[in-house]
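Is this the right way to post structure tokens for a design question? Let me know if I should format differently. Anyway, here goes:
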């Protein structure tokens, strides 16, 4: 791609023009011009061309243009006047230094008298570029170049500073060039004591814009000038503007110090940056030992911009640009291909994606269907399970009920058997009692009469013996045969024992009747002791055991009991069962004891007492304890004794019903308690408690 060089550099020239130069009429006094030049002004109004970060710095004008067509003393901007001013001459800092060096009194002069006429100018056109300006500077050793339009009108001024500024960012100043390449070694330096007037003279004489102030330093026997400050043309302008006595002032009083010194090996880029930072137009270059080596100014910076070199660089750049463009085009083609490939892939992807999505949707629908089916199945199963659970619970309940019913049936059965037994025993006993009662009553009722008769007859026999001592033989024989004396002595005894026996039979009958109490199926107030006694009476024959030799003693510790409200027949049945069990246990122990002779005599202890209720003191209980010193029982047996049909006795002997019936009679019929305390070889005690007065509704 070809580059339009002219337009590139024309733009550069345009951007280097300082558009707002100071302009004065030729009649303006030099003093006034000095004051104007000392004022700080905005250096470059074309801020559009600057990077936005860099505000235009305020600097002092280093020159004024002397123009015609203006009222004396007035200044104006080129653009604000319709009538274009005509350039007559230029007045720069250098002129002030020159006048100062010549000892001219500036107060009485006008600028028209001291200005440089026929100033070197440049006309803005397509052919002029920034290098034209640079070569003019170099050729004429000037630092100000007024720019005129095609019609001779003043456009502005170009200075090395404005060019340098226009070229920034100064990429064109190769970063690989050093300070030593461009620095000027023709430096004017003076000691610190030099007068300012002499300094101005030196500047004018050597046509330099500054003088470096040095101190002498010695190194290895040599004297080396060491820069400590600098005085420039601008300083002279300032002193003149302030109207100071330049002859009396010494360099050390007015110089700019301390100095920032560059090293010859520093990059030009650093010099450029430091000038910008310190806002100065030149920098001193010093060696390792601080000795003065040279000076770098804006003009010398611009030397780096040799037009020939610049063009070479531009060509290189252009080549680089062309290469880059080619590369870019290639990569562009590659990219387009890639984009095409990607588009193709994208389309393929989209198709695949759509297909996948379709598949996913289908699968999702299938899954949802399966899920719904599963859920339905689960629901059904749950229902079945619940139904099963319900029916199981129902079955369990039924089983329980059945078990209960069976138990109660068993109990009823045993109760029936027992009560049948009891009732048949009762009726038997009652029948016997009734049958015996009459004959016994005959005997019992007549026996007293019989004794009386016999006593009378014996009395008569005694009298016969007394009054007829010699009986006839046959009577005598009879007396001997029958042993009359013995009979007489024995007969009263015999009668007496008959009396006792009949009395005993009467008692038995009474007990039998009392025990059976068949007629008493209702609650009655009875004497518990009476029931116990009649039961013991019936069991008498088992207590006075013949075979074992030793009888069973019954110890009675009866308390003082009131009549108790109860079913007497049922209660007697309880006593009967418990006492029978005790006797049987003791009998069993007897058989055991035949092998090991015992120490304690076999006995049954019956204790009765009245006990108050713990929670209701006014309610009273009768407590009957029946204890034996038999073999007792194990824990396992003890746990089961109240269960129906539980027995440890051999078949045919025990039914296992006795205690279960007892428990039922005491607990259910009488609202009482029946418990057993026993340990193996420690005997056994049954304690039964029933309330003295039955609570309504019990039984
Ligand atoms: N006084 C006691 N001493 C030891 N064991 C006893 C006593 N009373 C009852 N038992 C035990 O209790 C069991 C159940 O008694 P029971 O219900 O009257 O039925 P059965 O007398 O027909 O065996 C008896 O087989 C016996 O093992
Ligand atoms: Mg029994």
């Amino acid at each position: 791609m070809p580059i339009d060089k002219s337009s590139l550099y024309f733009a550069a020239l345009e951007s280097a023009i300082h558009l707002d130069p100071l302009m004065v009429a030729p009649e303006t006094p030099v003093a006034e011009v000095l004051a104007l030049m000392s004022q700080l002004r905005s250096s470059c109004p074309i801020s559009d061309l600057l990077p936005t970060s860099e505000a235009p710095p305020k600097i002092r004008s280093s020159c004024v243009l002397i123009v015609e067509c203006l009222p004396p003393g007035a200044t104006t901007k080129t653009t604000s006047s319709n009538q274009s001013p005509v350039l007559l001459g230029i007045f720069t800092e250098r002129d002030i230094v020159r006048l100062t060096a010549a000892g001219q009194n500036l107060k009485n002069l006008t600028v028209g008298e001291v200005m440089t006429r026929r100033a070197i100018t440049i006309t803005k056109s397509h052919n002029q570029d920034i290098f034209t300006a640079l070569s003019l500077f170099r050729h004429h050793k000037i630092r100000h170049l007024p720019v005129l339009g095609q019609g001779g009108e003043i456009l502005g001024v170009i200075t090395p500073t404005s060019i340098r500024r226009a070229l920034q960012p100064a990429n064109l100043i190769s970063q690989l060039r050093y300070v030593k390449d461009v620095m000027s070694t023709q430096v004017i330096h003076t000691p610190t004591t030099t007068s300012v007037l002499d300094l101005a003279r030196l500047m004018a004489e050597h046509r330099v814009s500054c003088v470096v102030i040095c101190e002498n330093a010695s190194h290895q026997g040599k004297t080396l000038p060491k820069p400590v400050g600098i005085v420039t043309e601008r300083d002279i302008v300032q002193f003149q503007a302030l109207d100071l006595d330049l002859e009396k002032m010494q360099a050390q009083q007015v110089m700019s110090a301390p100095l920032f010194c560059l090293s010859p090996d520093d990059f030009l880029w650093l010099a450029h940056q430091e000038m910008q930072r310190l806002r100065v137009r030149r920098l001193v270059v010093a060696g390792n030992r601080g000795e003065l080596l040279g000076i770098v100014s804006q003009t010398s910076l611009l030397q780096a911009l040799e037009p020939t070199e610049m063009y070479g660089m531009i060509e290189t750049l252009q080549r680089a640009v062309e290469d880059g463009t080619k590369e870019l085009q290639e990569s562009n083609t590659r990219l387009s291909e890639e984009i095409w490939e990607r588009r193709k892939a994208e389309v393929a992807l989209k198709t695949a994606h759509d297909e996948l999505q379709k598949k996913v949707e289908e699968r999702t629908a299938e899954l949802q269907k399966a899920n719904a089916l599963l859920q339905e199945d689960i629901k059904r199963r749950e229902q079945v399970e619940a139904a099963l659970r319900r029916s199981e619970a129902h079955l369990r309940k039924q089983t329980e009920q059945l078990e209960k019913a069976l138990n109660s049936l068993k109990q009823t059965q045993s109760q029936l058997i027992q009560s049948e037994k009891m009732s048949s025993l009762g009726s038997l006993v009652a029948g016997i009692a009734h049958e015996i009662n009459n004959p016994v009553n005959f005997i019992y009722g007549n026996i007293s009469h019989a004794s009386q008769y016999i006593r009378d007859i014996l009395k008569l026999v005694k009298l016969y013996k007394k009054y007829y001592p010699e009986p006839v033989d046959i009577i005598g024989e009879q007396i001997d045969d029958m042993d009359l004396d013995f009979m007489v002595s024995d007969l009263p005894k015999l009668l007496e024992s008959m009396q006792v026996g009949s009395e005993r039979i009467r008692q038995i009958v009474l007990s039998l009747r009392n025990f059976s109490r068949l007629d008493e199926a209702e609650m009655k107030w009875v004497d518990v002791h009476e029931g116990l006694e009649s039961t013991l009476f019936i069991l008498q024959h088992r207590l006075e055991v013949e075979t074992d030799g030793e009888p069973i003693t019954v110890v009675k510790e009866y308390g003082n009991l009131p009549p108790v409200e109860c079913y007497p027949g049922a209660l007697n049945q309880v006593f009967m069962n418990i006492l029978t069990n005790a006797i049987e246990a003791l009998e069993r122990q007897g058989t055991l004891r035949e092998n090991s002779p015992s120490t304690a005599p076999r006995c049954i202890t019956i204790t009765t007492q009245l006990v108050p209720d713990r929670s209701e003191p006014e309610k009273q209980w009768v407590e009957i304890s029946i204890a034996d010193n038999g073999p007792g029982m194990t824990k396992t047996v003890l746990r089961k004794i109240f269960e129906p049909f539980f027995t440890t006795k051999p078949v045919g002997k025990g039914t296992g019903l006795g205690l279960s019936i007892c428990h039922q009679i005491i607990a259910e019929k009488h609202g009482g308690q029946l418990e057993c305390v026993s340990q193996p070889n420690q005997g056994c005690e049954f304690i039964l408690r029933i309330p003295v007065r039955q609570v309504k509704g019990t039984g």
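Format looks fine. Someone answered above. Worth noting: Residues 352 and 563 are 107 Å apart (CA to CA). Confidence is low (pLDDT under 50) at residues 1-11, 44-54, 76-81.
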